[in-house]
Amino acid sequence: MMSETRQRTRDKVLTAAEAVARYVRPGAVLGMGGQNIGRCPMALTHEIIRQRIGRLTVVGCNLSIGMDQLVAAGLVRRTESGSGNLERFGVTFCWRRAIENGSLEVEDYSHLAMVSRFLAGEMGAPFMPTRSLLGSDLLPATGEAGKAVVIEDPWNPGQRVALVPALQPEVSIVHVQRADPSGNIIIEGFATHEPEMIRASHHVIISCEELVSTEEIRAHPERTTIPFLYVDAVVVQPYGAYPTSTYGHYDYDAAHVAAYQEAAREGSPAVDEYLRRYVWGCATFDEYLALAAGSERLIALRRAMEEML
Amino acid sequence: MMSETRQRTRDKVLTAAEAVARYVRPGAVLGMGGQNIGRCPMALTHEIIRQRIGRLTVVGCNLSIGMDQLVAAGLVRRTESGSGNLERFGVTFCWRRAIENGSLEVEDYSHLAMVSRFLAGEMGAPFMPTRSLLGSDLLPATGEAGKAVVIEDPWNPGQRVALVPALQPEVSIVHVQRADPSGNIIIEGFATHEPEMIRASHHVIISCEELVSTEEIRAHPERTTIPFLYVDAVVVQPYGAYPTSTYGHYDYDAAHVAAYQEAAREGSPAVDEYLRRYVWGCATFDEYLALAAGSERLIALRRAMEEML
Amino acid sequence: MTPASSPAGPDHSRQELMVIEAARDLRDGDIVFVGTGLPMLATTLAQRTHAPNVVMVIESGVIAPQVRPTPISVSDPKVMHRAVKLGTLREVLGCLLQRGMIDVGFLGGAQIDRFANINSTVVGRGSTQRRLPGSGGANDMASHCRRLLIITHHERRRFPERCDYVTSPGFLDGPGGRERAGLSPDFAVTVVTDLAVLENDPQTCALRIAALMPGVTVEEVLAATGFRPEVAPEVRTVAPPTPDQLRLLRDELDPERVYLKAEESATTSRR
Amino acid sequence: MTPASSPAGPDHSRQELMVIEAARDLRDGDIVFVGTGLPMLATTLAQRTHAPNVVMVIESGVIAPQVRPTPISVSDPKVMHRAVKLGTLREVLGCLLQRGMIDVGFLGGAQIDRFANINSTVVGRGSTQRRLPGSGGANDMASHCRRLLIITHHERRRFPERCDYVTSPGFLDGPGGRERAGLSPDFAVTVVTDLAVLENDPQTCALRIAALMPGVTVEEVLAATGFRPEVAPEVRTVAPPTPDQLRLLRDELDPERVYLKAEESATTSRR
């Protein structure tokens, strides 16, 4: 069983290349952290693209720019999520195109239904009840156990309730503000579906803005979002969510998000060129940051966040 | 519906007497915060005893000294919990005696099963699946929907799973470290089953060590345990968990816990005398604190906690 | 039947009036589940005018923020400003929304049908199929809110008789539809468009014309609607904005004209 | 059949040796679900000797603390000292225990039967019935841990053929019992008493005598056991404590002799 081989050492600090090579295998069910333009795990996503690890099933609540780039790189076979979009910046265009041309399987849930699946996964429960989905086309017409089933509430005969199946990603990638070398992590600000998804996953790769000491973690144990027991690898990568924002650290870069979206909307060859230039053309995420933003821009994004808080 | 009448004002600060009179009615299902000798809502419990609000169904995970005093006062009709005890200080003797002499109904679950019931309650789900209880005598023999039912996991035919029904207390009482006047609350340290129970409840009375400003809450929104939307009344009561401990504030008073346990073990008239002296004999919880501990002892308990951290 | 109407003057756009009319629909103390775009402008406008105690809840885990202008995403740091809690999606969609604690939810969609069902998943069939972002929290809002508010551009293709795909349940197939599906029947829908305000008929559950934007006739609304809505017994005309409402909207809530410049596409105003 | 045994000298008590023998059963890196009392002494002793990477998890929401001597409750601030996380009961009992991430759980109980089922709810029937604290997290531990460790005083009434009430499932009615109930069959039980170490026979699932405390005979164990346990093919004698183990236990882990003075009652060593 996957969970038996969880990493139990106390120093889990790896490079992105090492962490991805070790824990993301072709065909994996990959859980994605972040939402829209907030805290997307871009450094880890780029590394998966760089290593061309394919046939992935990408799962999450809102799937955003990271998932779209994986699709653009031809690495995704299927998605299970509540949505694919970047709100004001438009939909996830490569994802949309791949669905429309039939090259991508897609399983649609609501956001609550996806969180409920991760909740079941983290609790070791086989499914979770919800009253979302009922009556809508998100609910499969047949009673077969697949995407969801409807049963009668045993305590209220005649009352229908949907059950959605537990989801335990093989590996999840999440970018956070702080982590210690053993994998205790602190998420500041909004946390979306990440706590449930992380605890549901068999393996977890964390990238973080700052590495802190375990001493510091133990000094404020109520601030720890997730204890080290769930985490296999810690990658230290400042600006690791760029061009999306990291609460408390830096704002999103609207210009670069828009640049990607323009290429994504256009499709081949514009989006291939984007990936060649910004992902395959860069040996590391720091190279990408220098190329796409540069230190002045990065400092400005940091200032923009400071002003906002 | 109860939940429709939740308190929506921004100043919810009341005395214990006002809060209990307003939100705890005879026959209510009462959720109890705290665990064993940690953060039991003693000030609010004493007030319920003082107002002699009876026929209560007391629910929680571990039920401890607060529940036992309510039983001693003859105010409890039924309990639903995972356990009744004070660990090293022994069981909850009045509870045990009441069960043994048939004057108290009791519904036994495991702690996880109780948390699962509160989890269903807070999620607005009718029940929660668990693999606890299976095979044990905690699981009712009949298939009737009452305490729990067993169904087949639709995704793994032949696999059994237990369902436990949602629990939404009519009112819960919880003692915390900090709250603002509108009811945003901060629990420091361990939080047991309280977050789920609070969010599951129709009404919530909070007692707190310290009243903080809403400004302070807004300055660190990631530290808020529970937002004001769930809370109806805030009672400011330093040492409100005495003789149990409040993490970060003061240690438990072993001598006073032992004194209560001695009376409780003996039963009538010793325990009646305890209640007369320490609860009915005191107009307020501060009077009780002066009588039972005195300021020197209280300061010593505070020092003991400081040294420990 | 058509009430007197005054032409929309040059002092405000219809888009501005849509936002203002939606804001009027919020009551003081309402707990409102909202995304970004025009719905957030409407909610913050209500907070700044007649409903200071409106509580905003945002899907990404944000509770009761004091939003800074002008967020473009539910994960935008601007929506998190001075919140009382920054939590999780489960806390918001599960412990508030499904728990039954949200009064009003704002939704958008590519299609809204006669029974107020909403489609934000896929439009068209076969080779002309166009994929949309999907439910997000929309299905959850429609399933669990007591009231839904929809702000949308009024076009024939947006108001079909029946949605190509029901992402978010309105009244489903009509009276009793929600109960049969397992949903709460305590439910109402208001649609504010650039032409009219539609509300569900309490008996038939179908959307009907409840108000007209100034200068708009019932015939214009019918011509721009794919199904044929009934007309409420007393159709009112939407009141014009006050100078204060316009000033707040233009100078304080969307000073950069991020949303007010032009009507948003369905995909971006949707949550 | 009875192995050579050395009489317990005056240099240590049987109770101390029970704790030390239980500590030996923990492997480095084990994630251990533990309450207070002798189990916590055993776990901290393991951490201070052969298993420094044992991770302690405590029901009240405490993860990986560096416990200070000598906590008397799972809510005692002493068990929270320098934890890496102070969280909730759900996180610990749900997201770690039921999730399958706990290697070893420590349990106690008033009765342990042939198939290692445990009773901490009610002993006796009718008018002689005695109510106990109930499951707490015990049922959850027995349902979801891969290994259970029990430290208990060896008395006939504590080891009946069948528990009066099964609070926590051992092997239930024997081979296949756990699978039939819906529980994982990946499960093993070790019971350390003042007379012997009992372990489940992998085939029959029944508890059998695996080791004897120094100076104790099989006959003495059988006489103190309500059911008749088999004897493992190679019964070993529990090794005596090392001076270091005794020093740690007496001087550092329980210097006030809160637990070591006398054997605890079932209710207080139980969690």
Question: What does this protein look like?
Answer:
- The complex is a heterotetramer, with 2 copies of chain A (309 residues) and 2 copies of chain C (271 residues).
- Chain A is an alpha/beta fold.
- Chain A has 11 helices and 13 strands.
- Chain A is globular and about 65 Å long.
- In chain A, the strands form 3 sheets. In chain A, strands 1, 2, 4, 6, 10, 11, 12 and 13 form an 8-stranded mixed sheet that branches.
- In chain A, strand 10 (171-179) and strand 11 form a beta hairpin.
- Chain A has 2 domains: 11-109 and 168-212 and 252-308, Glutaconate Coenzyme A-transferase (3-Layer(aba) Sandwich), CATH 3.40.1080; 127-165, no CATH class.
- Chain C is of the alpha/beta class and 271 residues long.
- Chain C has one domain (14-253): Glutaconate Coenzyme A-transferase, CATH 3.40.1080.
- Helices cover 24% and strands 20% of the residues of chain C.
- Chain C is built from 8 helices and 14 strands.
- Chain C has helices at residues 14-24, 38-48, 89-98, 138-144, 177-181, 218-223, 243-253, 266-269; strands spanning 31-33, 55-58, 62-63, 85-86, 104-107, 111-112, 118-119, 122-123, 130-131, 147-152, 188-193, 196-200, 207-212, 230-237.
- A 10-stranded mixed sheet of chain C has the order 4-3-2-1-5-10-11-12-13-14, sandwiched between helices. Chain C has a two-stranded antiparallel sheet with strand order 6-7.
- In chain C, strand 2 (55-58) and strand 3 form a beta hairpin.
- In chain C, helix 2 (38-48) crosses helix 7.
- Chain C starts with 13 loop residues before the first helix and ends with a helix.
- The model of chain C is unreliable at 1-10 and 262-271 (pLDDT under 50).
- At the B-D interface, strand 5, helix 4, helix 5, strand 9 and helix 6 of B face helix 3, strand 9, helix 4 and helix 5 of D.
CATH architecture of the largest domain in chain A: 3-Layer(aba) Sandwich
Uncertain runs of chain A are none
For the CA atoms, what is the radius of gyration of chain C?
18 Å
Strand coverage percent of chain A: 15-25%
Mean pLDDT of chain C: 91
Overall structural domain count of chain C: 1
What is the CATH C-level name of the largest domain in chain A?
Alpha Beta
Question: What structural class is derived from the secondary structure elements of chain A?
Answer: alpha/beta
User: pLDDT below 50 for ≥5 consecutive residues: which ranges of chain C?
Assistant: 1-10, 262-271
- So how many helices of chain A? 11
Query: What is the domain total for the residues of chain A?
Result: 2
How does the helix and strand content of chain C classify structurally?
alpha/beta
Tell me how many strands of chain A there are: 13
In CATH, what is the class of chain C? Alpha Beta
Question: Mind telling me the C-alpha Rg of chain A?
Answer: 19 Å
